[in-house]
Write the structure tokens for this entry.
Amino acid sequence: AFHRVEEAHVTNSIPAEPGTLMIANGHEGVSGVTNYDIELYRNSKAFDIHSMSDYFDAYDNAVEKMAKEKKIWDLKSEWMTTKSKEALDSYADNFVIRFAKVELKKGKHDKFARIVKKEMRNSMAKEPGVEILFAGSNVGNPDEWLFFEVYANNDAYNKHVNTPWFGEYIDDSKDIVENKELHDIVRDTMAVQGPIVME
């Protein structure tokens, strides 16, 4: 039932709202108990337009009724790049999706930003199987970062983590990272205005 509400939310929003750049939903594990909703808006006005829609109300009400708990991260977009919508559509059934949270040592936001943006720039430019990379820092805590990453398939993901630039990212950031969480996500629905390039 929740996935049906998710799908309606996505399919109604993207075609009607030029300012809603991406909405993606997915779940973790076989049971689907833990769900993720990733949303990107052009600006606060775009979010206001979205939040006043009937389908947003339906989605929000469904979440309130079904969810045991809910956590929202308000993020400053640090990096967002997608391949074309056509490319995303052609690979969608095989997507490998990773959701990650990285906690930094206090005051290391700027240094980490330089390290991670270099890695993401190389990944998007040199790896055909890297479809979407999004990084955002927590508005309330800039030393907490969240990542949403989409790969064409398992092979693309395995190649990515063995590239020189990914290894360099790990080496260069190891002394400033306090904690990492990595979650494997199964795609439910995903739509982008795409392609999106935001550095």
About this structure: The first helix runs from residue 2 to 16. The chain has a mean pLDDT of 92. Strands lie at 20-28, 34-41, 75-82, 96-104, 130-138, 141-151, 177-192, 197-198. The first strand starts at residue 20 and ends at 28.
